Amino acid sequence: xxxxxxxxxxxxxxxxxxxxxxxxxxxxxxxxxxxxxxxxxxxxxxxxxxxxxxxxxxxxxxxxxxxxxxxxxxxxxxxxxxxxxxxxxxxxxxxxxxxxxxxxxxxxxxxxxxxxxxxxxxxxxxxxxxxxxxxxxxxxxxxxxxxxxxxxxxxxxxxxxxxxxxxxxxxxxxxxxxxxxxxxxxxxxxxxxxxxxxxxxxxxxxxxxxxxxxxxxxxxxxxxxxxxxxxxxxxxxxxxxxxxxxxxxxxxxxxxxxxxxxxxxxxxxxxxxxxxxxxxx
Length: 281
Description:
Elements: H1 24-30, H2 35-41, E1 43-47, H3 49-58, E2 63-68, H4 70-75, H5 77-85, E3 89-92, H6 95-101, E4 110-115, H7 121-126, E5 131-135, H8 141-153, E6 158-162, H9 171-177, E7 186-190, H10 192-202, E8 205-215, E9 227-231, H11 240-244, E10 248-251, H12 263-280
Parallel strand pairs: 2-3, 5-6, 5-9, 6-7, 8-9, 8-10
Antiparallel strand pairs: 1-4, 2-4
């Protein structure tokens, strides 16, 4: 065990507390909010009790360090206990230190450092997937995080990100997944043409979400087959080259007066409708 108390005392914690917001250790953690530091170190930042809880539950071997205020550990004893079981180094800090480390204004007293652990495409395909989300040039962190969360909720087998999509270890993406980043395999930095070719080899139909595609309801039954959804950029959608890789393009109907659907909302509908169709069959 590396410096973790066996239990939290009822009196205020009086052990060693990291107090200097400008210390090298604090600065190193804070730098992980920047992509360059994440690429250099292979690490990323987790903020808040929910993210730490999910990482410790589903990927404990990736969590390297846990930083928390004594009061946060009193409120979230399950996080402390999970860290102890995983033999993760727990360092107590002041609120000022947590604020200096975190990307958010309110990190809720807990920050963790974890090792990036994307899944290789070959491992995803070896598992025989039936529902996959492919993200091509999704640039908004909130949208990507929500798509990962929706894929997890819909029971998708994987989320695959091309090289032009935002970094899934961006703090905003991680927060938006609310822990789903640790539940569903995520592959990164792939070329769309290669991904589509491998989907076809594995027996999945590639379906593009496109505003000029066929009416969704007319092809709904086809979604019962193994399906890989292809989602594009928030503003431009999928370009012609990307659409050419798809076997089918579908559009969600707009029944009201909305100009369009947010990408993450549309992706959630597509993934759930496919999950419904596959489970009904």
